[in-house]
Specification:
By secondary structure, the chain is α/β, with parallel strands linked by helices. About 35% of the residues lie in helices and about 25% in strands. Helix 4 crosses helix 5.
Length: about 300
Amino acid sequence: MIRCENLSKSFRRARVLDGINLDIALGERIALIGSNGAGKTTLIRCLLGEYVHDGLVTIDGRSPRQERTKVLGAIGFVPQLPPPLKMPVGQLIEFSASLSGADPRQIDAIAGRLGLAVDDIRARPFIKLSGGMKQKLLIAIALGRDAKLLIMDEPAANLDPEARKIFFDLLAERQESATMIISSHRIDEVAALVNRVIEMDLGKVVLDDKVADDVSLSGRFACRLVARRADAALAKALTAWQFTADTAGLVWQGEVAGPDRLRFIGMISRYVALISDLNLAEILGADEAAALQGGRAKDALLAVADGETVQ
């Protein structure tokens, strides 16, 4: 899907990309990590055809620099910083859809799933939206087209927990048909989203490793938390994750998206002194539950055959 051969880029005398060689297949979910100045943004801009560079870059066999219109039509891009666009939201959706042959109604529908009612803001300038609203709209525009490549720079940074769950569901719907590159400064923010990690430093790839791919993007974990005492800060944090409490404010229950479980644990660790019990259990679908039950039955039969006592 993506090929970089000896990709190099310099600004004046500073070498920003230094001989990058990468092959990325359809369906891979890449965490592109590294500190500021590592070259992540420059690599992304080369993939988007924004820079003249040395070496070869192709996306689905096409050069993003020489065939930019055709290549960009098949890319969904979510920037880290929203552009300062003054055009109305409705005009932005129509314009973005026309560039890729997408249906504007599909963009509206995805925005709605993320909790953004486009009809209420259609006449409002994009620049006047809140940070979260801008992020939801940019995600909807990126996912509203038939993109084989999704490039996202800190895509869920401004999303509330409920919108993050929906965002992960939307990615799950595309994971078989699209390649995803998710740029981040921190691996713990994206570890559960990806199946390959590429780390950059000083314009070079210093790590390229496959990671475990056993967590569904659409997975859910049921969480039950028991607090030692009622606490306003803990209550505020859990309420932001859509958790509900008993009347005493001690027993909290809710759901956490599978890819967000590390982020949730990181958040809750700040209140560890207040927590007496915490349980996270994966919510299985009907097919998964049947398969698990079948596996247990098979194990029991094997144990009986071996003369073991089965409880």
